[in-house]
Design a protein that fits this description.
Blueprint lengths: L1 H9 L10 H14 L4 H14 L10 H9 L6 E5 L35 E5 L3 H9 L1 H6 L15 E2 L6 H9 L1 H4 L5 E7 L15 E7 L4 H4 L6 E6 L9 H4 L1 H12 L1 E5 L4 E5 L1 E7 L2 H8 L19 E2 L6 E2 L37 H11 L34 H16 L10 H10 L8 E2 L5 E2 L9 H12 L15 E2 L4 E2 L4 H16 L5 H17 L4 E2 H21 L7 H5 L3 H8 L8 H6 L1
Parallel strand pairs: 4-9
Antiparallel strand pairs: 1-2, 2-6, 3-16, 4-5, 5-6, 7-8, 10-11, 12-13, 14-15
Helix pairs in contact: 14-17, 17-18, 18-19, 19-21
Length: 606
């Protein structure tokens, strides 16, 4: 097979061109994929090309023959049948079974032909990782993290994941793995999306991606180094069954840890290529599906675990993290003893929750997932398949909090609350009722009216109507450099005093660059300063290069900043996303710049 592929690679399409048959077909298939061409459109294009070429052209005549030509490249995918309820895979020992062991559902649809209810597409990553070393220049770049230090390099700066503590700790724990600079560090990412139009029936498809982290910072985020490993079928999202469907990937990662014989084009030798998954990337709902710790309810925070002070609001009915952060402050901080600035008559003396080791977390997951106390003492609902990896317990950062979605949710909450947008504000009637029960802020209590309704006093963080018009007109006049941000003016609605259609990146620009300028002069000085500090926090956190000293300061300052926000906004404002800000600086210290741990690159790729 190898020699036949080499022959096709050298064979020219015709004698008057420099393009080989393989390069031409590879480019045509790439164009088909990038432009979502149908098979019939591809065949029609090939037919026209053949009419323009000499009769002895070696170009394939249709899509089927084009695929057959590239099959020899060693990039196949496997179809694995799945129980229609996602209970099990017909895989390995279960490959020949005709019904599910769990729910007893039949493997195939009714009828004479054997058509499975669900099919998982699995594309092994080993061949693609080996191809990185088959190209001399790429093989050289895969050694970037072991580069010779330059005298001008600043040891305090983090520019790459290898500068983070998670990478360095794995090197200390696994010296045999770390001794070879060609050992690959991987990141796994997943997110659900709808492959059809919004008018079609709902369908949730879950691609799973794997990316190498060895490459230089300016190369690591390129889309060509995002490898699609799994396509998990819908129509419903897999929920807690996601780890069952990712089992083939976990098995391949175990084999890669042992080593796979690979040719190194830069070193001109064969070697045993090893690979390890450093962390996973996902939004917050998918976090629970991958980690096995549900992200719903008052125990939603994976880092705090069961040792949380979150509670459920009596009127709002949602989980709340109000006044759960003073325990993270230094023991002598003045906020700890302010009895009426947060909860009524409450002084906080205890320290932060203890951070469990990987061994403790794994043992807890195995023990608690079947104890019947889910939602009361823990949120374990299944054990992740990645615990099977021999090094997984040693990782400092197994699953990441996505900064992109965190920024978006926090920014949206501030905008909706300060603009007092109906159905979106966190300062609604139920929030004021909860505030009256929890806090000592009499000026914000609801006042009953003779007609039986409530009068809601305007909070100091709510912008007046005439000022909203000024701010929206300012947004309409904004101009950005090409490619910097979307146009905010397209979504400004002066009638409803809203901005419609904002995406995650729009909120990223808003909270980091626009918020201090937009709200200055329209809010009390102390509130504006607090929001400006929040803006500066995200701007420092999302920098391409992170100073270790800056990250250490962020870890200290974010606790105080959240406590300041608690003194301003009502308890209903503080959902899991506001709480998760407290863990973001530590995550940056472990993983390095956030560009390597957020979902932007994967969502754009999808």
């Amino acid at each position: 097979m190898t020699f036949s592929i080499l022959g096709v690679a050298r064979e020219l399409v015709h004698e008057n061109t420099s393009h080989s048959t393989m390069s031409a077909i590879a480019r045509l298939l790439t164009i088909k994929s990038m432009n979502n061409q149908s098979e019939s459109a591809y065949n029609d294009t090939l037919q026209l090309i053949h009419e323009l070429l000499p009769s002895n052209s070696s170009l394939p005549t249709n899509f089927y023959r084009s695929k057959k030509l590239l099959e020899g490249l060693g990039m196949p995918y496997h179809k694995i049948h799945v129980c229609r309820n996602n209970c099990m895979l017909y895989y390995k020992d279960n490959e020949a079974k005709l019904k599910c062991d769990i729910c007893k559902a039949p493997r195939y649809k009714e009828g004479s032909k054997k058509v499975a209810h669900k099919v998982l597409r699995y594309m092994p990553i080993t061949d693609r990782l080996q191809r990185l070393y088959a190209h001399e220049e790429t093989a050289k770049m895969m050694r970037y993290h072991k580069k010779t230090p330059h005298p001008d390099d600043d040891d305090d700066m983090m520019v790459h994941p290898c500068d983070g503590e998670a990478w360095q700790q794995l090197d200390k724990d696994e010296p045999n793995f770390a001794s070879d600079p060609r050992s690959v560090r991987l990141v796994m990412a997943t997110d659900g999306f709808t492959p059809y139009s919004l008018t079609a029936a709902s369908y949730s498809c879950w691609p799973v991606f794997v990316s190498p982290l060895n490459l230089p910072p300016d190369v690591i985020t390129r889309p060509e180094y995002i490898f699609l490993a799994l396509v998990i079928p819908g129509p419903e999202h897999p929920g807690t069954k996601l780890n069952i469907l990712m089992q083939p990937l976990a098995d391949e990662l175990s084999k890669l840890w042992a080593g796979v014989r690979t040719w190194d084009a830069y070193g001109k030798q064969n070697f045993d290529m090893k690979a390890a998954q450093l962390w996973t990337i996902h939004d917050f709902p998918a976090f629970g599906m991958v980690a096995g710790w549900s992200t719903h309810g008052r125990l939603a925070c994976y880092d705090c675990g069961s040792d949380t002070q979150a509670f459920r609001l009596d009127k709002g009915g949602k989980a709340c993290w109000f006044d759960c952060h003073r325990r993270f402050l230094p023991l002598d901080h003045e906020f700890r003893t302010q009895a009426d600035a947060f909860r009524k008559d409450t002084v906080v003396l205890e320290g932060p929750p203890r951070r469990l080791t990987g061994v403790e977390v794994h043992a807890q997951a195995k023990m608690r997932v079947v104890d019947g106390l889910y939602g009361k003492e823990h949120n374990w609902n299944h054990v992740s398949c990645f615990w099977e990896l021999p090094y997984f317990e040693k990782l400092l950062l197994r699953h990441t909090i996505d900064v992109m979605h965190n920024e978006k949710n926090v920014s949206e909450s501030i905008w909706s609350t300060c603009f007092d947008i109906p159905d979106r504000t966190k300062d609604n009637v139920k929030a004021r009722q909860d505030l009256e029960l929890i806090c000592n802020r009499t000026k914000l209590h609801l006042k009953p009216m003779p007609n039986g309704k409530w009068e809601k006093p305007r909070a100091p963080f709510c912008i007046e109507g005439k000022h909203k018009v000024i701010i929206l007109n300012w947004f309409k006049s904004l101009r950005f450099p090409d490619g910097y941000a979307a146009s905010f003016r397209r979504g400004v609605n002066m009638k409803d005093k809203k901005i419609f259609g904002l995406k995650s990146h729009d909120y990223h620009i808003f909270i980091e660059r626009l918020l201090p300028a937009a709200f200055r002069g329209f809010l009390p000085e102390d509130i504006w300063v607090c929001l400006s500090e929040l803006s500066f926090f995200y701007r420092q956190l999302c920098a391409k290069q992170l100073s270790k000293a800056t990250v250490a300061n962020l870890e200290k300052n974010i606790v105080v900043l959240i406590c300041k926000l608690e003194k301003i906004f009502p308890p209903g404002f503080f959902n899991p996303m506001q709480h998760l800000m407290i863990h973001l600086p530590r995550q940056a210290r472990l993983a390095g710049p956030v560009q390597n741990i957020w979902m932007y690159r994967y969502e754009r790729y999808i």
